[in-house]
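Input for the complex:
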Amino acid sequence: MSHIWPALIGMAVITFSCRYAFFAHSFELKLPEPIEKALKYAAPAVLTAMWVPIVFMQENRTLTTDLTDPFLVAGVLTLLLALFIKRTLLVVFLGMAAFLLLKLYQ
Amino acid sequence: MNSINLNQDVVRIPDRQLVVKAIFDVMPLSLAVIPWGMLCGSLAIEAGLTPLQAQFMSLIVFAGAAQLAGVSIISAGGSIVSLFTTTAVISSRHLLYSAVLKHEIRKLPLRWRAPLAFVLTDEMFAVAHAFREEHGYFSPLYALVAGIGFGVIWNVSTLVGIVAGASIPNLDSLGLEFAIAATFIALVIPAIKSKPVLMSVVVSGLTIIGCNLLSIGNSLMIAAFAGMTAGYITEQWGNES
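Predicted:
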C-alpha cells in the first residue's frame, strides 16, 4: 500500500467517529427504547466478553483443561477475591501476585 | 433537625485527588498493554511504515486491536477498502461506549467532548464506568486523566517497539494480559448487584466461549449484545412479576 498517510488518517477518522458519535451536538443519534434500557448492561457484558477468554481459553480457541494453568487458577482466585474484597486495586494486585507466583513455580 | 443532612447530592472528590486516583486506577491496564504497544510499533516498521508513521498511528488512531489488524492488512498489501471496513468493524464497540456515556458527556462543551472521545478506549471506559458506579456521578476530569495516562503508556511502548524493531523479546510469554483479566474481573464482579446484571455477565461469558470455539468472527460484539439482551429481558420479566 503506497498511500500510508491517507490510510492512517482514514483509520483515525473512523475510530474517532465511533467514539464521538453520541457526543455530537450537531446531530443526535436516537436509540430505540429497549436498546436504551439494555445499555445499562453494556459495561458488564462487554468487559466480561474480554476477560472470560483470557481466563478460560487457550489462544481464544479451545477451553483450558489443564487445572494448573496459571490464567485459570489465578483468574478463579481473583473472581473469589472480588466477591469479598471491595477495593478494586487490592483485588487486582492480589490476583496478579498469585498469577506471577504460579508462573514462577509452574 | 440541623444535624440531619437532607442533601441527597453525591460527595464530590477534589480535583487533585481525582487525578491521582485516575492514574492509579488505570495503571494495571496500562502495564498490561505495554507488550501490545511494542508489538504494534515493531510490526508497523516490518509492514513498511516509517518510524514517524508508526508513531503517528498510535498517536491518532489510538486503538490497539484496530492498529494490529490494520498493520497486518497493510503488510499483506490489502486494499484500503478492506483496511477501512476492518477498522470500522473493530471500532464498533466504541459506539457502544459512546452511547453508554452520552447522557453525561453530551451536555459538556466541545473542549471536553472532543478530548474525551479521543481517549475513549476499552480501558478508559472500564475505569470511568466503574467510577460512576461507585461514586454515583461521572467525572470528566477523572475520565480524561485516565484516558491520557493510558495513552502516554501506549505511545511510549509503541516507541520502544519502533526502536527495538524485530529484536523485541517475547513479552507474550510473560502473560501480561492477565492484568486485563484481573482488572476487568475486579470491576465487573462488585457491579453484580441484581439478577439482570448477573444474567448479562453469565450470558456474555458463555456466548464469547461459544463463538470462539466455533471460530465465529466479531465474537466480542455478539457476546456483548447477547449479554445486554439477557439483562434487558431479565429486567422486563422482573417488572412483570
